[in-house]
């Protein structure tokens, strides 16, 4: 409350100074501008640090979005807030890279999605592509600004904790401001920082600190844990021994953070690059155009890939064959790593291919047939009601038809019974009878579940059909 | 008195007037009052006489109190002149002088208007003469005096010589003149131009401090930096986990915001082709509301990453997310993660609850297209009677399905019922406003014939053919015994005929087979329900008042109770005491039918709003169980006589059979389990199954449908 008043007073004073043309004084006053302090709210909302990490998605999305905003006098986008957001965004990306926290990344049409796992919390955020955002005018930016004010402080406190926990100084040096060739980070510095951070996170001290009792050592959970850790260690070093050369027109702003996070090296066309285009160490040449178009010497020793290869490799945690990702040709479909194919009930072809490579057989969850039958029956009933409501005209016909149908059904059923399919029909009848006994609430729930399952299935069926058509067309 | 007062006044005046006269003369203000003008003039005059012409300027202040010695003759003081008017007329008294002696009005002042006029006419300088009342004389203004008055009036000095008086103060005309110095402001004290010693000491002290490093001088940039740093200060706020923030208890538990949906395959810049929308789907999606669309973007394929354009809606989406975060109320919902089949409640396997009717055994063909309204089974279980809305009544052989008798009535046959007495065989048929008692001749066994004829004989004895015509009250119904010669007797085997005022809808027999009740259709009178005794050939009116439109009635199978249902309630009457015992609230809007459990402790009500209610007589006035499973109105409900079964017939063309175990121990709740849904009847004119009845000693169910079918379910 007091701060609010102070802000009001500040604004009055500032306005007066500006109207007087006293810029120096105004600047001094601006520096002293009272700020809302949210530490207590942060602490209240997130009593523990992990709570805070779990709820960081929205904060990151907003800050990364603001970092791409242009300044706009009318909409109140100040240079100051945007640079502050850029700083925070940079620090966050740097942390994830240095501490090797990235888990997934996805090239969507909205931007690049990232997921990092920090202290067991999955944090997902999206960074728009490197374009200046077009600012729509039908939006109340004050709402976003208010959120931003809180998120800025939240993220800065979080980052402080994260950096200090891995033994780094906060705030880190801004490499992106000093670089002469537009690179965001200096690979060398990142490697140095990584050494410090990883030592702190996974080094000996950290292992000793875990203090595992001997009883636990013998349990299967422990072996599982060890296995998991080993697997993660492997993922962290997914790109070990790989040196990428990032050509122009490749999202360097993203890959610069991602590649080191998986243990890889990279070079680019620039003064500070560790590798030149002719370096012999380079194993992968990442480019987005046909090789012929750029006047480049083709090197047999290295693989030429499109950037999607890196993202797919990260998501699938396995080095995919390079042959499909040749620059110039349309690459294979890029799948979202955030989708649980099992629950969706549909496995895209590309995923099947990858699964083959991995040697995993993934089965798709299919809802029970019984339920579907019920759903359809409900629909039939509804239809019948609809028909009845439509008028008497059709009733005679429909009833007769129904009769015929039912008779036929009955006969069929009899046959089925004869063919020892008695059990199934009985079971079905039983569920039908059971439905009579359901309470109203249960019945509604039952209908809803069936409805959602049905919709899902319809969607999946449509996809399957389309795919079939496409394959036939090919 | 007046004298005294005047004296006192004059004294006072003396004192008061003195300071007035001290007033300085040089104000130069234009004086209008002739008196004061005279005064000043006089004083000036005297001054001039006293002083020498070249006046000393310094004396201005001192000598100006010249009015001190000015003598005024009349010392009456500052009182209005007219107070002396009375005295002036007699003695010519105008006042008193300083010594207290009377002053007579001077003769020149005593001139009246006429004299004055004459004087003005004669004397050209008459205007120079003014009368000085205070001094009791006339004064002539000299030339100088007039001039002076003019000067004063025009705002100049009174004397011409004063105009160029250099000694008088004039405000400075020229500020730039260095020689001119203002007395107060232009005088700079020494401290204005000599450096302050105190200040010098202070500066020296700072200088010392800076030199020795005690004081640090910050540049402007440094100061700004410092403020900035202070603003951006961060620390580990989670370090001290023990301090949890204060949280008022009353606040509800905080609910975390749900996370955004993760991106699907379709959002990829290069999705599998099946995720793209074709033209038709696009149109479909466009028609939907934005919230209902499959995606909030359009799936697209780009063959390389560099071709992906700016996504325009991201800001809007983020904004909407912000709005959701702070506007949408958060509710914690239990997420149901169970299969739908788990929702179905547990119940015993129907196959363990056999026997119950499960399939069609015999179809009784004969009604063709007529809607079969009602059916009944004879107490012996051999015969089935049915009535349709074309007036046909058929008597069937249950086991073979043969028609044994066929009677034809006019109009709709609403209800057919066998007399439940096992020893007799009487079929009652409700047709329009008649009730016929039919004795089907061919069907009788020897005993039955005998018993039935006994009953008729008894009836005949009690029957009084001619009703007392003198009675003004019209009887609600007319009994008639048909002789063998009667047409009805020959064609329809009718022995007894009852004629009513109103159309009869329903008939219900008491279990002993003597009493029966009739229900008239849709009228609101006390004679809607009538109870008759066949053996006594009598009719009773059980209610003195109407109970609203009664939908259905039923006798209690064991006790002398009678159930009457109107739209929403069920009334239970004791027939012996003739009182209302209970009132049940069905909870339904339109009750259609009631069936009593053969033991008499429970009953079931079916309603047109698809509900079925199970009541326990001992449990209270509300249903023990309510069930809603039919998709259309329930037409009829029926209990089985010996098996724990009941069935409901509905307009949706289905019959539901329930197992209903009622225990001897009243503390145990009855067990109601659905065992079978019988589907076989069609729906016509929105009517499905119209009546159902159980076989008296088999687990068989008869049902009659609007499609004209009559089925036996075994």
Automatic annotation (TrEMBL), chain A:
Residues 234-327 form the BRCT domain. Residues 357-430 are annotated as: Disordered. It comes from the Eukaryota. Gene3D superfamilies: BRCT domain (3.40.50.10190). The keyword Disulfide bond does not apply. This is BRCT domain-containing protein. Keywords: Nucleus, Ribosome biogenesis, rRNA processing. GO terms for biological process: maturation of LSU-rRNA from tricistronic rRNA transcript (SSU-rRNA, 5.8S rRNA, LSU-rRNA). One of its GO terms (molecular function) is RNA binding. Coiled coil: none annotated. It is found in: Nucleus. PROSITE patterns: BRCT (PS50172). It comes from Euplotes crassus. Residues 363-386, 397-406 have a biased composition (Acidic residues). InterPro entries: BRCT_dom (IPR001357), BRCT_dom_sf (IPR036420), PES (IPR010613). One of its GO terms (cellular component) is PeBoW complex.
From TrEMBL, chain B:
GO terms for cellular component: nucleoplasm; PeBoW complex; preribosome, large subunit precursor. WD repeats lie at residues 365-406. Residues 47-58 have a biased composition (Basic and acidic residues). The keyword Cell inner membrane does not apply. SMART domains: BOP1NT (SM01035), WD40 (SM00320). It holds the Pfam family WD40. One of its GO terms (molecular function) is ribonucleoprotein complex binding. GO terms for biological process: maturation of 5.8S rRNA from tricistronic rRNA transcript (SSU-rRNA, 5.8S rRNA, LSU-rRNA); maturation of LSU-rRNA from tricistronic rRNA transcript (SSU-rRNA, 5.8S rRNA, LSU-rRNA). Belongs to the WD repeat BOP1/ERB1 family. This is Ribosome biogenesis protein BOP1 homolog. It comes from Euplotes crassus. The lineage of its organism: Eukaryota, Sar, Alveolata, Ciliophora, Intramacronucleata.
């Amino acid at each position: 409350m007091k701060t609010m008043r102070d802000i009001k007073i500040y604004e009055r004073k500032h306005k007066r100074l500006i109207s007087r043309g006293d810029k120096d004084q105004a600047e001094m006053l601006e520096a002293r501008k009272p700020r809302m302090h949210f530490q207590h709210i942060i602490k209240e909302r997130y009593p523990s640090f992990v709570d805070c990490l779990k709820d960081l998605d929205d904060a990151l999305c907003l800050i990364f979005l603001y970092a791409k905003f242009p300044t706009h006098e009318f909409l109140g986008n100040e240079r100051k807030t945007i640079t502050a957001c850029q700083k925070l965004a940079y620090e966050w990306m740097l942390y994830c890279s240095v501490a090797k926290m990235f888990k997934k990344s996805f090239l969507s049409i909205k931007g690049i999605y990232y997921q990092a796992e920090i202290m067991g919390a999955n944090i997902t955020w999206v960074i728009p592509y490197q374009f200046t955002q077009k600012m729509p005018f039908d939006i109340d930016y004050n709402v976003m600004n208010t959120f931003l004010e809180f998120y800025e402080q939240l993220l800065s406190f979080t980052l402080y904790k994260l950096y200090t926990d891995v033994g780094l100084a906060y705030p880190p040096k801004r490499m992106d401001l000093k670089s002469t060739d537009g690179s965001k980070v200096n690979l060398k510095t990142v490697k140095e920082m990584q050494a410090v951070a990883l030592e702190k996170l996974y080094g000996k001290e950290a292992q000793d600190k875990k203090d595992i009792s001997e009883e636990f050592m013998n349990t299967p959970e422990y072996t599982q844990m060890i296995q998991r850790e080993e697997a993660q260690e492997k993922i962290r070093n997914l790109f070990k021994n790989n040196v990428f050369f990032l050509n122009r027109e490749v999202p360097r702003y993203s890959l610069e953070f991602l590649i080191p996070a998986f243990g890889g090296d990279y070079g680019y066309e620039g003064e500070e690059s560790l590798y030149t285009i002719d370096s012999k160490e380079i194993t992968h040449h990442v480019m987005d155009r046909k090789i012929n178009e750029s006047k480049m010497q083709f090197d047999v020793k290295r693989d030429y890939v499109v950037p999607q290869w890196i993202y797919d490799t990260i998501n699938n945690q396995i080095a995919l064959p390079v042959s499909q990702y040749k620059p110039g040709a349309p690459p294979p479909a890029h799948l979202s790593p955030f989708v649980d194919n099992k629950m969706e009930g549909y496995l895209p072809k590309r995923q099947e291919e990858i699964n083959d490579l991995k040697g995993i057989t993934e089965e798709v969850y299919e809802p029970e047939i019984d339920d579907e039958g019920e759903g359809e029956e409900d629909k039939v009933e509804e239809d019948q009601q609809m028909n009845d409501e439509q008028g008497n005209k059709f009733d005679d016909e429909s009833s007769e038809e129904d009769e015929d149908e039912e008779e036929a059904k009955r006969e069929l059923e009899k046959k089925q019974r004869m063919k020892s399919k008695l059990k199934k029909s009985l079971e079905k009848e039983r569920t039908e009878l059971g439905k009579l006994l359901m309470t109203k609430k249960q019945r509604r729930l039952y209908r809803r579940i069936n409805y959602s399952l049905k919709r899902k299935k319809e969607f999946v069926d449509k996809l399957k059909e389309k795919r079939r058509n496409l394959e036939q067309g090919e | 008195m007046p004298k005294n007062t005047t004296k006192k006044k004059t004294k006072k005046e003396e004192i008061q007037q003195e300071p007035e006269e001290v007033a300085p003369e040089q104000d130069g203000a234009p004086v209008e009052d002739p008196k004061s003008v005279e005064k000043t003039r006089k004083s000036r005059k005297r001054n001039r006489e006293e002083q020498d012409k070249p006046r000393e300027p310094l004396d201005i202040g001192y000598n100006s109190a010249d009015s001190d010695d000015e003598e005024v003759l009349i010392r009456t003081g500052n009182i209005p002149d007219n107070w002396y008017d009375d005295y002036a007329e007699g003695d010519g008294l105008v006042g008193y002088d300083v010594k207290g002696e009377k002053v007579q009005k001077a003769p020149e002042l005593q001139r009246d208007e006429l004299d004055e006029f004459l004087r003005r006419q004669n004397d050209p300088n008459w205007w120079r003469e003014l009368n000085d009342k205070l001094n009791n004389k006339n004064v002539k203004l000299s030339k100088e005096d007039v001039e002076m008055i003019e000067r004063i009036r025009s705002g100049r000095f009174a004397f011409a010589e004063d105009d160029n008086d250099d000694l008088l103060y004039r405000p400075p005309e020229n500020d730039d003149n260095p020689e001119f110095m203002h007395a107060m402001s232009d005088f700079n004290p020494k401290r204005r131009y000599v450096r302050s010693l105190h200040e010098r000491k202070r500066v020296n002290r700072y200088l010392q401090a800076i030199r020795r490093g005690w004081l640090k001088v910050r540049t402007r940039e440094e100061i700004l930096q410092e403020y900035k740093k202070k603003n951006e200060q961060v620390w580990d706020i989670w370090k001290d986990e023990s301090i949890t923030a204060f949280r008022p208890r009353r606040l509800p538990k905080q609910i975390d915001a749900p996370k955004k949906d993760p991106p699907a395959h379709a959002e990829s810049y290069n999705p599998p082709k099946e995720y793209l929308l074709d033209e038709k789907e696009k149109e479909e999606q466009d028609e939907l509301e934005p919230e209902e669309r499959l995606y909030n973007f359009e799936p697209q394929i780009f063959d390389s990453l560099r071709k992906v354009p700016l996504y325009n809606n991201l800001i809007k989406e983020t904004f909407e997310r912000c709005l959701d975060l702070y506007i949408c109320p958060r509710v914690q919902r239990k997420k149901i993660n169970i299969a739908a089949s788990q929702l179905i409640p547990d119940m015993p396997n129907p196959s363990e609850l056999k026997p119950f009717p499960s399939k069609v055994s015999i179809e009784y063909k004969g009604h063709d297209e007529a809607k079969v309204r009602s059916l009944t089974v004879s107490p012996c279980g051999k015969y089935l009677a049915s009535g349709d809305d074309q007036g046909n009544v058929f008597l069937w052989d249950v086991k073979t399905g043969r028609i044994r008798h066929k009677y034809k009535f006019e109009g709709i046959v609403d209800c057919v019922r066998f007399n439940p007495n096992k020893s007799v065989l009487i079929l009652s048929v409700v047709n329009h406003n008649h009730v016929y008692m039919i004795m089907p001749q061919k069907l009788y066994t020897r005993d039955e014939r005998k018993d039935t004829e006994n009953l008729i004989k008894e009836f005949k004895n009690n029957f009084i053919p001619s009703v007392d015509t003198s009675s003004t009250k019209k009887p609600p119904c007319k009994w008639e015994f048909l002789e063998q010669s009667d047409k009805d007797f020959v064609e329809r085997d009718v022995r007894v005929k009852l004629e009513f005022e109103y159309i009869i809808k329903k008939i219900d027999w008491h279990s002993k087979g003597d009493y029966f009740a009739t229900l008239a259709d849709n009228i609101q009178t006390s004679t809607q329900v009538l109870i008759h005794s066949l053996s006594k050939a009598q009719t009773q009116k059980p209610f003195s008042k109407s109970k609203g439109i009664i939908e259905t009635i039923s006798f209690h199978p064991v006790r002398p109770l009678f159930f009457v249902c109107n739209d929403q309630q069920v009334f239970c009457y004791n027939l012996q005491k003739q009182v209302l015992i209970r009132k049940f609230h069905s909870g339904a809007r339109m009750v259609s039918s009631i069936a009593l459990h053969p033991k008499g402790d429970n009953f079931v009500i079916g309603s047109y709003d698809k509900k079925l209610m199970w009541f326990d007589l001992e449990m209270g006035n509300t249903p023990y169980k309510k069930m809603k499973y039919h998709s259309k109105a329930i037409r009829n409900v029926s209990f089985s006589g010996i098996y724990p079964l009941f069935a409901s017939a509905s307009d949706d063309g289905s019959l539901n059979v329930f197992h209903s175990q009622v225990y001897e121990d009243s503390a145990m709740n009855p067990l109601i389990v659905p065992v079978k849904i019988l589907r076989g009847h069609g729906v016509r004119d929105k009517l499905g199954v119209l009546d159902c009845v159980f076989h008296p000693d088999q687990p068989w169910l008869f049902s009659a449908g609007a499609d004209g079918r009559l089925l036996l379910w075994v």
